[in-house]
Amino acid sequence: MARVIAIANQKGGVGKTTTAVNLGASLASSEKKTLLIDCDPQGNATSALGFPKDPARRTLYQALILGEPTDRIVIDAKVDGLDLIPSDKNLVGASVELVQMENREYRLKELMPALRDRYEFILIDCPPSLDLLTVNALAASDSVLVPIQCEYLALEGVSELLDTLMRMRRTINPELAIEGILLTMYDDRTTLSKQVAADLRSFFGAQVFETIIPRNVRLAEAPSHGMPVILYDIHSKGAEGYIQLAKEVIENAQKRVGQGAERADSGAGAADSGEPSSASTTSPTAAAAAAAGGDTGGSNSGGSSTGPGTE
Ligand SMILES: Nc1ncnc2c1ncn2[C@@H]1O[C@H](COP(=O)(O)OP(=O)(O)OP(=O)(O)O)[C@@H](O)[C@H]1O
Ligand SMILES: [Mg+2]
Prior knowledge:
By secondary structure, this protein is an alpha/beta fold. It has one domain: P-loop containing nucleotide triphosphate hydrolases (Rossmann fold), CATH 3.40.50. Helices cover 41% and strands 15% of the residues. The protein has an 8-stranded mixed beta sheet, with helices on both faces. Strand 7, helix 8 and strand 8 form a beta-alpha-beta unit. The longest helix has 30 residues. The relative contact order is 0.16. Adenosine-5'-triphosphate binds next to helix 1, strand 7 and helix 9.
């Protein structure tokens, strides 16, 4: 059963698509069969994987709005183990058309049963907004990964996003966890990057992935060659970063399975949201889920989470 992770931040240009494409390719190269859903009408993930605009290509639009089966839309992303549901500008229409539709928040979620069994990870690249497409992505997901650029005003908009996530948990998707906050475009030569990274860590504590994605020109060049960075320049710092991130995501998934098994043994936790409820857990997901389930007004203590079940 796939873990479905939305990659979201309504702020533009923070590295969502770069993360979706390169985490996807890195998971696939670790032999975790992965599907990337391009949920952004800009279609950047689609073109970054080497699929230029083509009006004849079926996209997420056909599945979401016209109800076509996803197996007619999924394509091989030309990376072993990685598939893609492409997007194009027609999806702009989708966010408007969805408003009129029944179950408008759950159209993407309804596509998941046909996909979950075929993959170990499903990543959803969200547009830079909190519109119905993003709501559909968050409703369909188990967790959300939030890339934040290491720059001045990095935190701007993050509290709005966390408010939205909490609202989603209360209404549309009570199970939504925070996969982690990812620091992107980190430049270790500048004190600003270091300061921003330190601030974000003290604010979000264990919710932040240990992996930091460096600013790396190879990451910016790879999309114009239509390939993920691990195929474009495997030895680059950017490739290293995303391979490391994939390891962290896989390890967290394995920990969750372990904790789930323990809980099943003890018969506890049946009523919570599927996240670890142990008081001693230090996993970013658990701490993040606890924060998302509680008050996000300040830093969490990291490692003393009591889990979302206490809400
Ligand atoms: N770590 C990095 N180092 C260097 N350049 C990067 C890095 N991450 C992303 N970029 C570049 O920054 C720009 C924005 O990145 P990206 O498209 O991934 O952001 P996004 O959040 O998906 O943007 P949007 O909100 O428009 O969808 C792109 O040109 C990308 O190539
Ligand atoms: Mg993008």
